[in-house]
Amino acid sequence: MRPATRTRGSSNAVTNGVGVQAEDTRICVVMVGLPARGKSLIAQKVVRYLGWLSITAKCFNVGNYRRTATPQPNAAFFDTSNKEGERLRKAAAEAAVDDMCKWFRSPDNLIAILDATNSTKPRRRWIKERCDAEGIETIFVESKCDREDIILSNILEVKTTSPDYEGLDPEHAAKDFLERIKMYERVYETLDEDEADMTYCKIINVGSQVIINRIQDYLQSRVVYYLMNLHIKPRSIWISRHGESMYNLSGQIGGDANLSARGRKYAEELPTLVKRSAGDSPLTVWTSTLKRTAQTAQHLPYEKLAWKALDELDSGVCDGLTYAEIEEKYPRDFKARDEDKYNYRYLGGESYRDVVIRLEPIIMELERSENILIVTHQAVLRCIYAYFMGSTQEKSPWMEVPLHCLIRLTPRAYKTEEERLFADVPAVSTWREKGSKAAHQVQTLSISECAEMCTDIACAQDTPENSRRPSPSIAAQTKP
Ligand code: ATP
Ligand code: F6P
User: Fold this and answer.
1) Which of 178, 349, 431, 444 could anchor a disulfide with 314, C-beta 3.0 to 4.6 Å?
2) Active-site positions?
3) Predicted ipTM?
4) Domain map (residue ranges) of the chain
């Protein structure tokens, strides 16, 4: 049974804004499948997606437990006739399940992912019984893939560099890994009608077919829907703020202002900047419904779609004010926002948490899509960036996203690569440091100097220092 300390009021289900989860639901997502079928990648993406939505989730990777006793096994270790190997593998699975059950005793912990091959029916039955005994729901997620090209490229992309083969020749590693797969194939049983009493989702050949069975509640269906939208085609997502607006110049927030002359110049240069980064790849452009994003995207020669969900964070009664005016008129609110910027909701407006919730369909659509260019606003861009880079709620609202800069995000297995390209068009900085005097700042260093210092910021996972324009010293502390 659920521990008595867990109440609706204390659970994420109420406070995270997606609060439709039944108060007693805790879910163990049990990954199933042969090695190199993307299970760990899927598990990590689910954890990141749920974390972004403030649903506390954690991955328990049985391989990590196994590695403490057997750091670098060869394929023979995974032969089921190898008694010692079997014993150690079972011990690793038990240790992971024990830790997971302990983790679920904390009231805010809602979803665990048990990441292992779980490739036989008896192993899955055992997991279900352990979870049933703890009152934890199970959902089995199988990745089944018989596309040899995909499996081989997965091995080369991630397995030869796994800690299991550290310091070993990659060719030897790939061969041994193929042998390991054969060991598993001997005993592997796919989810089928024998397990019709279980909740499961079978993803076949990277989503070309999906079979779902007994999906029971909202959170389960949400996870399944997310899984159905994942693909592994190479692609990038480009994000840019709108060009400098008249409100940016005056230091006012919100509104629906036109671009400034420099903002219009950025709009003119954006197609060249995009072409430099995307070449001739086909793109779709998403904007908000506000004038400044449409004006910024106007010269882009691609299909365009305007989303209300991409509109800037609604600053309620503060819309149209400068930060200095907000500090003067609403000093307590101004301070409260600095103290907890992610959760602070403007009077009659929104918080960053609210923006994340309304962006969920955007993220889902982004996962389904290939190359997309999003022209949006500072706060919205921070939230989208946080999803891809796994940034924390403490840091993401403070991230510096300069105007006139195109960010390219390229999701790869286990990381998202980042590249920043600056247009040679100056703009004010709208970034305000926590606790600072509220004033927009003027960019005094030429953008080409910035560009030299700032292109090719690669693979930044949650490193806000990488997200800044070169240095605060290049920005004068005066208004234009
Ligand atoms: P192991 O059992 O050895 O831990 P695994 O199944 O966890 O293997 P991953 O390490 O997650 O495999 O493999 C990552 C690779 O799988 C990435 O290259 C990714 O592109 C690819 N991948 C992601 N999703 C799928 C999928 N549904 N089917 C096949 N491959 C996928
Ligand atoms: O100043 C530009 C702007 O897009 C405003 O319209 C918006 O209120 C603000 O940035 C969001 O940034 P922050 O959350 O740092 O105030």
Assistant:
1) 349
2) 115, 242, 312
3) 0.88
4) 24-229, 237-466
